[in-house]
């Protein structure tokens, strides 16, 4: 009887202890959640300085879509084919010194002659006549390209106008320096060679930067800091005096 009277008491005590333990564990869960700290690597990634202050991936910076896929070698066959085609054009016109009008005329002569012979000789060789497609440029595409070019050219003209107005000395010096460097590069090579160099750089620099951006960005940050430091010294010693002199001349 004593054992039977003790068993209910023991069972009640066990239930009470289980409830206490369950309450303690549930109360300790929010404390453990609050004690969780953010991953330092994620916070470091958020604070990493990116080249040109970008916050988006390289693919999005290049405009996205198929052109960005070609420049970043997403499809190696397509990218290699485009680069090979441009290289062949550069070799034809720059190294072999083939002229554009001559090349177009030779291609048209060969194409028209082959189609003419095939159209007249298909009965003798027991083959069907060639199906010559109708080629025409869509008006909508031509208008879109012309509109885009017009917008870009107008933006360049407006930018040059703002620089020439004398409102921003920093932009004026940057434009003069850029045009001077471009004029020097123009004396070294022809326009087609310059275009080919830029095209090759677009096919190599972005993909290499995307692969090694974690190593490039710290070095670029140091370089930008040094450039800003040197510009601040130049601004304090030269540009500020020029601005003060121009203000005095205006007042006079």
List keywords for this structure.
Reticulon-like; disordered N terminus; 252 residues; endoplasmic reticulum; single chain; mainly alpha; membrane
Annotate the secondary structure layout.
Elements: H1 2-35, H2 40-47, H3 58-61, H4 65-71, H5 76-95, H6 100-121, H7 139-164, H8 169-188, H9 191-211, H10 213-251
Query: Which oligomeric form is depicted?
Result: single chain
Main beta sheet: none
Return the structural class.
mainly alpha
Q: How many beta-strand runs?
A: 0
Give the helix tally. Answer: 10
Shape estimate: extended
Report the order of strands and helices: HHHHHHHHHH
Cα-to-Cα separation, first versus last residue: 118 Å
Strand content: under 5%
Mean pLDDT: 77
> Considering DSSP H and I runs of 4 or more, what fraction of the residues is helical?
over 70%
Parts with pLDDT < 50 across at least 5 consecutive residues: 1-6, 23-38, 40-46
CA-atom Rg in angstroms: 35 Å
Main location: endoplasmic reticulum
Protein name: Reticulon-like protein
Transmembrane segments: 78-96, 103-121, 172-202
Region (Disordered): 18-41
């Amino acid at each position: 009887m004593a054992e039977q009277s003790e068993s209910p008491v023991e069972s009640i005590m066990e239930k009470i202890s289980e409830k206490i333990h369950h309450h303690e564990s549930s109360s300790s869960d929010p404390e453990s959640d609050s004690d969780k700290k953010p991953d330092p690597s994620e916070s470091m990634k958020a604070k990493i300085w990116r080249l040109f202050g970008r916050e988006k991936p390289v693919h999005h910076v290049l405009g996205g879509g198929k052109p960005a896929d070609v420049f970043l070698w997403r499809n190696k066959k397509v990218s290699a084919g485009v680069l090979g085609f441009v290289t062949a054009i550069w070799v034809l016109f720059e190294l072999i010194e083939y002229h554009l009008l001559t090349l177009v005329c030779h291609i048209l002569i060969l194409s028209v002659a082959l189609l003419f012979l095939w159209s007249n000789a298909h009965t003798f060789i027991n083959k069907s006549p060639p199906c010559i497609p109708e080629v025409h440029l869509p008006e909508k595409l031509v208008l879109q390209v012309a509109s885009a070019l017009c917008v870009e050219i107008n933006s360049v003209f407006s930018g040059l106008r703002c620089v020439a107005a004398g409102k921003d000395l920093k932009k004026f010096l940057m434009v003069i320096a850029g045009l001077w460097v471009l004029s020097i590069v123009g004396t070294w090579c022809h326009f087609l060679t310059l275009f080919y160099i830029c095209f090759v750089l677009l096919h190599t620099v972005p993909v290499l930067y995307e692969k090694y951006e974690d190593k490039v960005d710290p070095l670029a940050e140091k370089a930008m800091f040094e450039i800003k430091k040197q510009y601040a010294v130049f601004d304090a010693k030269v540009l500020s005096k020029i601005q003060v002199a121009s203000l005095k001349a205006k007042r006079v």
